[in-house]
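Thread amino acids onto this structure.
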């Protein structure tokens, strides 16, 4: 019985204090590295370096090729999963008012990304246009994922980032 109680206490402590770290540890290391690169852009990294990290898995494929588009689609799905994982954790940790604010922001963000990533596409159906659109969407998702991580780690100054007491 004492072992059960000790395990329960350890699990409880982990859930209370380690949940956020656990979620971040669940992210692929490549995603953590890319978000760190973006966060340090003003001091020690460049946009080109960060793009290199974000798109490294697809860099061997010819841009616009079927392999390249499939890789980008996979990266889009992977980054969306990372974003959703942190978004779920964040929704549990911020106040109800903050969740409401974040929901409003996200509805605007979805529209913004859609418009931004459609703008300037010459031949909308061409493989290079699709690659450009996916690349744009991925970079926006990476940025949002990084913002969620910053909020969870107490480094965000966003108005919606108010933790529950």
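Threaded sequence (165 positions):
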């Amino acid at each position: 019985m004492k072992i059960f109680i000790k395990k329960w206490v350890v699990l409880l402590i982990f859930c209370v204090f380690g949940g956020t770290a656990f979620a971040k540890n669940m992210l692929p290391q490549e995603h953590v590295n890319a978000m760190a690169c973006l966060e340090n852009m003003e001091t020690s990294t460049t946009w080109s370096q960060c793009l290199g990290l974000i798109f490294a898995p697809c860099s061997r494929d010819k841009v616009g090729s079927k392999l390249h588009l499939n890789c980008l689609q996979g990266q889009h799905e992977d980054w969306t999963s990372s974003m959703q994982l942190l978004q779920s954790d964040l929704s549990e940790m911020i106040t109800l008012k903050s969740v409401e604010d974040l929901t409003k922001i996200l509805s605007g963000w979805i529209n913004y990304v859609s418009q931004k990533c459609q703008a300037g596409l010459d031949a909308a159906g061409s493989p290079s246009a699709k690659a450009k659109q996916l690349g744009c969407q991925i970079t926006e998702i990476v940025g949002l994922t990084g913002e969620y991580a910053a909020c969870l780690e107490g480094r965000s100054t966003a108005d919606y980032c108010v933790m529950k007491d």
